[in-house]
Amino acid sequence: MSGSVASNPIKVMGLDFKHPVGLAAGLDKDAKAIRGLFQMGFSHIEVGTLTPRPQPGNDKPRLYRLRKDQALINRMGFNNEGSIAASKRLVNRDKSWGVVGGNIGRNKLTANENAVEDYLLSMNHLRAVVDYFTINISSPNTPGLRDLQHEKALKRLLQKIYEENKVSDDPKPLAVKISPDLSKNEIQSISKLAVDCGFNGIIGTNTTTGRIGISINDRAIEKIGNGGLSGRPLSRHSTDVVSWIKEAVEDSTAVIGVGGVFTEQDVLDKRNAGADLVQVYTGFVYNGPSMIHDIQGAWKK
Ligand SMILES: Cc1cc2nc3c(=O)[nH]c(=O)nc-3n(C[C@H](O)[C@H](O)[C@H](O)COP(=O)(O)O)c2cc1C
Predict the structure, then answer these.
(1) 120, 217, 233, 279: most buried, per Cβ within 10 A?
(2) Closest ligand 1 atom, residue 284 Cα
């Protein structure tokens, strides 16, 4: 595949990546476009968030561009066709294209007490066709989902997922994706807990419910309504979160930095904060495919 330049290969979570830059979850939720996305040059693509049963997501409008701020606000709400449909699309992929991560969540109507069943179902559906799993407990658009980040609930969830993965016929590396809207203490506790539960990677961060660093006025912000903010305004804070995670886990697990990556310097900032890989969503929406080639070699410099 011509788009993927094997310029900067690295091993993370036991997997081989052609370079550090991947596509963050949420753009190709249903694994409909991975071939084309790999051709654009990503080293890895995180499909999802997928839920075990299909669901429509929130009513439209649910995605807003804040052009001047190089930001997006979304409240998609895990619109997806379900993990079985995605697994059928992924079954014939060529593994030489790159690494595919399966980002999974619970259905909107599943109570948090039963959430673990949803994660395990999707893992079963996707196990044969993805290279790693990301446990998403940090999207702001599924009511109550972020409560799974509370210590007791999280321990139960991660332990169970780890155990079931370990005894399966094809265990996969496990990552957990966390929110930027937590204190340093909370982020470091969650990171240590994930390591204690045997997880191989921590992804920081998802979108923020905060509205800092954007130039539109309060009335315009209010008109948009709820949702997660991504892009440039999140850049500095998500880099801080990466450094907090790294401080907590040292070299015991991989750290994947995501949030406001647009330029080579942004990639370097995430790396200097401790990231082993970076992921991009909003930067790709604004800058298009050429950015992947522009930034993928940053770590070699
Ligand atoms: C429209 C949209 C949909 C998203 N959907 C998901 C999702 O389904 N699951 C997930 O873990 N993250 C999702 N995200 C979050 C991104 O993966 C990423 O963590 C966040 O946007 C920060 O990176 P960025 O500033 O490069 O966009 C979504 C982001 C956007 C903008």
Answers:
(1) 279
(2) 26
